[in-house]
Design a protein that fits this description.
Oligomer: heterodimer
Strand content of chain B: 25-35%
Radius of gyration of chain A: 22 Å
Number of helices of chain B: 7
Number of helices of chain A: 12
Number of domains of chain B: 2
Distance between the termini of chain B: 43 Å
Shape of chain B: globular
Structural class of chain A: alpha/beta
Largest interface: A-B, 13 and 12 residues
Helix content of chain B: 25-40%
Number of strands of chain A: 15
Shape of chain A: globular
CATH architecture of the largest domain in chain B: 3-Layer(aba) Sandwich
CATH topology of the largest domain in chain A: Aspartate Aminotransferase, domain 2
CATH architecture of the largest domain in chain A: 3-Layer(aba) Sandwich
Strand order of the largest sheet of chain A: 2-8-7-6-5-3-4
Distance between the termini of chain A: 44 Å
Structural class of chain B: alpha/beta
CATH superfamily of the largest domain in chain A: Type I PLP-dependent aspartate aminotransferase-like (Major domain)
Helix content of chain A: 25-40%
Strand content of chain A: 15-25%
Chain lengths: ~400, ~250
Amino acid sequence: MKIEDCMADFQIPRHLHYMDSAATSLIPEPVIASMNEYDLQYRANVGRGMHRLTRVSTQRYQDAHDWVSSFIGGKEGTTVFTKNTTEAINMVAAGMDWQPGDRIVTTIAEHHSNLLPWLRLRQKGVEVVILQPGRGGILDPAIFEEAVTADTKLVAISHVSNVLGTVQPVREIAAICKERGAYFLVDGAQSIPHFSVNAQNIGCDFLCFSGHKMLGPTGTGVLWMKDAVIYPFMVGGGMVDDVSLEDATAEGYSLAAGYKRYEAGTPNISGAIGLGQAVKYLESLGMDAIFRHEQKLTESLLAGLAGIDNVTIYGQEDLKNRIGVVSFNVGRIHPHEIAYLLDERAAILVRSGDHCCVPLMKHLGLENGTVRAGLYLYNTLEEVDLLIETVEEIARMV
Amino acid sequence: MVPSSHDVVMEVPLAVFVNGRHALTAMVSPTMLEEFVTGFLYTERIIKKPEDIESLHIEENRKEKGMVTLSASVLTKDPFSIMLSSKIVLSGCGGDTSYVDADRLPKIQSDLVTDVSRIKDIMKETLVSDLHTRIGGIHIVGLFGSDGKICVIEDIGRHNALDKVIGYGLKQGVDFSRTIVTCSGRLSSEMARKCLMANIPIIASRGATTTLAISMGEQSGLTIIGFVRSRKMNIYTGTERIKNQEHF
């Protein structure tokens, strides 16, 4: 399917110019249909039971895992379905055996979801080292050479900044982590929806991302692990092979193999099926085609905004190592005011504020944050032109 | 009786579920199971092409009293017709019954012609089996095309072996109308039926055939050849496909 042909599958763009996809993407009809099909035609719990509906729902649920694994080149690892990226990262933080003196290396550019779980481990005596990106928001691998010491247990960074849209050199950082024996966690929430990402090629140990930013339903996310080294932070139904009460000193249960041990309780079945369908949808368009489309839009947006007086763009000002997440400000107008005006004047929907990145905002001296346009496959050049024109109108008010 | 060392052929129960419904439990040799399931679904007309299978999972179930059991779970692209039907009755190895109506079996559509020497050659090539020689108790089925051997597959059940051969051919995109099936054992009506469903025009066996198989062959244009040996073979039906019959 061609990018232009997919427009019919989205209803919101018929009336509004949706440019808030870095927060959550729109969802196409086939994904909604797959979830409706589950609820209307074969709704049943998964994993346990012998009847026909549970067999079909279980298989569709397993297939969704397989499709997502394959999509990220992660068939060799374990693909666990979570609620979102935040839950995936928290599972790693809660599931590793932390000792006082362990060290975590992360950066100031992280979303709170990839920062707070590590800061909380300070309570256990874990040292959290915060690195700063260089010009344009790019991390220099050389700073990791120094920061990743022998007692560093984990390095956690975002593949793509949700504020600046910058793409970080994850393969180079992975090589340093491997050499030093540190686990490497990549927050792929902003990368996996927009270009082809292969977990094996990156060389990471954990890859976390959200389904709702990649055409899937809300309440879906993924934790991929190269090796299933963490302990499940929830226990309960569906995640054990056996339970025995005979030994009063033992836990009394043996964990199931694979993803099941990390998915205690009834999961979000329709969401998982929808996420699987979203992956199929993205594959039918081709991730390279999606990336090229977004690059075209981003190039146009960056050039247009750069030509407006009083507009400041944050992050890389050219296409090198960046995607269509574009943060900017207009003079000293509050970002929320700009977002409001864009909606009221031109039905353009963007995000504004700190984008759950307060430390980065403080680092950049941006008390009120930024306006952020998050472009995706259903946006058009005409919409980008409209955004530029409307920002120009607002800028003339300054 | 003298104690001796002798390998014994493996036999494992495989339960096949299609769209949540139990379709059959076959006793099989535990190899090429995806091919078996694909071939089985094709010859039962549950699928028309391999792409009709949305997903296929083969799992080893818990060992009970030392016995391993396998299950195959299949979802087809449109699972709801079977999922909601009142019953799913399919044929199985040894059952020789099928939900496919015998009176509505297809006719062979092929202009393939071959000769007796080729039948002898491919039969010889089929029966060269280390496993068969060493262990015995195993059926061999081969699939041959214009370029020679496509595959030769062994199984404890002849119908299983033929389903595996057809499944393999489907996965490889083989044009069955240009192929010949060979087999080591008795050529039953079920073997003939599977060839008809796949549009394989010639089936030849080292063993005997049955009256029902011959009847099906006559109705459908399938060439059935039995007792293929070095100096003879019996061509029961579809004789027009075999040249040089005078060279026996």
